[in-house]
Backbone:
């Protein structure tokens, strides 16, 4: 498990996938019964959408590559095509029984502001490593879209 954890941490750092993790930690902090991986499953597709909608060509290209790797057919990389990565992740989550949202996890929408603040307080570097700059308001919106 220690080796797997090390590999996962390395992958997160290399892939700049830290925003979902920064956002998932406050969920588990406020709701200890919600595992970190389940929290990630609930918010990841909305983080992906935020990154694609607001990302530069390099960011969009990375999401096109994710889509291709997950079996999607893409000839020309556009924001629309990059969003196929979101659908592919949702399908994978469905297959493994983790297609959830924050409502299903019984998260209180009144805690969104506190959770967004927590993401910046406890994992600011994670937020800053996101390929697209995100403000506290952006994080709150991503949480809202995850219900």
Residues:
């Amino acid at each position: 498990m220690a080796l797997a954890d090390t590999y996962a941490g390395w992958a997160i750092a290399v892939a700049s996938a830290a925003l979902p993790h920064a956002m998932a930690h406050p969920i588990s902090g406020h709701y200890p019964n919600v595992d970190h991986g389940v929290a990630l499953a609930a918010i990841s597709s909305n983080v992906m959408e935020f990154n694609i909608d607001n990302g530069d060509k390099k960011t969009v290209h990375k999401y096109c590559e994710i889509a291709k790797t997950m079996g999607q057919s893409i000839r020309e990389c556009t924001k629309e095509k990059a969003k196929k990565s979101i659908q592919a992740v949702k399908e994978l989550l469905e297959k493994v029984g983790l297609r959830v949202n924050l409502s299903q996890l019984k998260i209180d929408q009144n805690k969104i502001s506190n959770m967004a603040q927590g993401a910046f307080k406890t994992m600011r570097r994670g937020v800053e490593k996101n390929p697209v700059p995100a403000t506290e308001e952006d994080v709150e919106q991503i949480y809202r879209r995850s219900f």
Summary: Residues 2-145 form a domain with the Dehydroquinate synthase-like, alpha domain fold (CATH 1.20.1090.10).
